[in-house]
UniProtKB/TrEMBL annotation:
Region (Disordered): 470-503
Name listed for the protein in its UniProt record: Integrase catalytic domain-containing protein
Transmembrane found in the keyword field: no
Gene source species: Paspalum notatum var. saurae
Keyword Hydrolase among record annotations: yes
Length: 503
């Protein structure tokens, strides 16, 4: 009976007496015994997980000394959210969505699964409920598991499956990319009444490594009401005015409600005659945070940290070179607009801005391997039909994916692509340079960026320097700034299309 697992409605927990089944086994800290039907007892030697196939897992399984059977507890399956139905001649296990997980046939007076005959994922006893949440966690830029479970239960996003809370889920890239000090007391209300009323803006950078297109800085703009965000990548700080001007004019054309103000710090890229004249002509109030008081512009400061954390985590997972930081930040912004809930309003930023729920069906794991269809006039009969590539995000103005073609060493936008999101990735996608060591910060002032959300005060990372000195160091730019007469590179598109076109 070593290869047979029996469904037992009188068993209090999953248990087996065969050590070979355990993929992981932890010793118990206290003495525990299992009482058998004949009043005999067996000592619990440990508790662990039993992986029966690549998609077959039982958790909290007791390893019981001298137990001659492998037992599956009906009550434990019910506690984990499954449904077990007994009918004449059959036993069915269903998940929370009433999808059939497993059918068991009678053997004598019991129902059993003979695991020697199990082949592939088609037949399984308990499909691991963590499989879907792990895949989605990676696709949405390593957002928290708790947020994903909450979003799935609220039904605010199209294409998001029903997920169940998992215990002890630890993502190592998240630990490397997101560990911070504790935050402060959050705000208790929404200060604006409609999208576009107030825009927060700030510049992050310079980066330690130039992006593929030669950019060093990223301008982050956040709408106060919806928390919808835009990112623009710049070679020089003084390019910020052009991006802000174009965005403000576009938002004014899109909405019949007036924009009231913009808010920034006192940096020279914001406090100058061009911004002053522009705001005066449009009747906008330009609000400035007090010197060395980033908490007064905390909305965008926290968004900065969230985007950088997401980007750093996505880069770290597949050891993607740091020169692709702009693509990672762009993708992080695209995901955040569709996933994050606006506090006190209970809707995503995307829905608050566009009036419809976002979709996540098209999301894929950043940095994964992919294959792009060759579109040339003539291919040899036995020539490969695709190009190897690395997934870098989503096109700004079309329903397409951005892919780095390894052979051509360039980014293309295409919808003719298939993905390999296998986890974990055992082969690095690129050859790494000296600037691409694991855990290397993306930006030189990365210690100063703070967390996203609706918390009130900012939270700089721990440092031996006092806060005022750290903020001053943040604002100092080691690279010379160009005069206004120097040519500027073409503006890079904001993160994600203005319309989702049903994706």
């Amino acid at each position: 009976m070593e290869d047979v697992w029996i469904m037992d409605s009188g068993c209090s927990r999953h248990m087996t007496g065969h050590r070979k089944w355990f993929s992981s086994l932890n010793p118990v800290s206290t003495k525990e015994y299992i009482t058998f039907g004949d009043n005999g007892q067996g000592k619990v030697m440990g508790v662990g997980s039993v992986s029966l196939s690549t998609k077959l897992s039982l958790r909290e399984v007791a390893f019981v000394w001298n137990l001659g059977f492998n037992l599956v507890s009906v009550s434990q399956l019910l506690d984990e959210g499954f449904e077990v139905r007994f009918k004449k001649g059959a036993c069915c296990v269903l998940d929370a969505e009433e999808t059939l997980v497993c059918s068991l046939l009678p053997f004598g007076h019991v129902f059993r699964v003979d695991l020697t005959s199990v082949s592939g994922p088609a037949r399984c006893l308990v499909a691991s409920p963590s499989a879907d949440i792990w895949k989605l966690h990676r696709r949405v830029g390593h957002l928290s598991f708790d947020l994903l479970v909450r979003l799935s239960s609220m039904g605010l996003i199209r294409g998001l499956p029903k997920l169940r809370a998992e215990k002890d889920l630890i993502c190592h890239p998240c630990r490397h990319g997101k560990m911070v000090a504790a935050s402060h007391i959050p705000m208790s209300q929404v200060m604006t009444s409609y999208p576009g009323e107030l825009l927060h803006m700030d510049i992050v950078g310079p980066a330690r490594v130039a992006s593929v297109s030669g950019k060093w800085y990223v301008l982050v703009v956040v709408d106060d009401f919806s928390r919808f965000s835009w990112v623009f990548f710049m070679e020089f700080k003084d390019e910020a005015f052009g991006f802000v001007r174009d965005l403000v004019l576009r938002l004014r054309n899109e909405s019949h409600k007036a924009m009231r103000a913009i808010r920034s710090d006192n940096g020279g890229e914001f406090r100058n005659s061009r911004f002053e004249n522009f705001c005066r002509d449009l009747g906008l109030e330009h609000q400035f945070s007090s010197p060395y008081t980033p908490s007064q512009n905390g909305v965008v400061e926290r968004k900065n940290r969230t985007l950088v954390e997401m980007a750093r985590t996505m880069l770290d997972e597949h050891r993607t070179p740091r020169r692709f930081w702009a693509e990672a930040v762009n993708t992080a912004c695209y995901i955040a607009n569709r996933i994050f809930l606006r506090a006190f309003l209970g809707k995503t930023s995307y829905e608050l801005r566009f009036g419809r729920q976002p979709s996540v069906k098209h999301l894929r794991a950043f940095g994964c391997r992919c294959f792009v269809l060759k579109k040339v006039g003539h291919l040899d009969k036995f020539e490969s039909r695709c190009l190897d590539g690395i997934f870098l995000g989503y096109a700004s103005n079309s329903r397409a994916f951005r892919v780095w073609i390894l052979e051509a060493k360039q980014v293309v936008e295409t919808c003719e692509v298939s993905f390999d999101e296998t986890m974990p990735c055992t082969t690095p996608a690129f050859e790494l340079s000296g600037d691409d060591e694991e855990g290397t910060p993306i930006f030189e002032d990365e210690e100063g960026v703070v967390n996203d959300g609706d918390a009130g005060a900012t939270t700089p990372a721990c440092s031996s320097y006092p806060l005022s000195l750290r903020v001053q160091m943040m604002k100092e730019d080691p690279r010379p700034q160009p005069s206004s007469s120097l040519p500027r590179q073409q503006a890079q598109a904001e993160a994600g299309p203005a319309e989702d076109a049903g994706r």
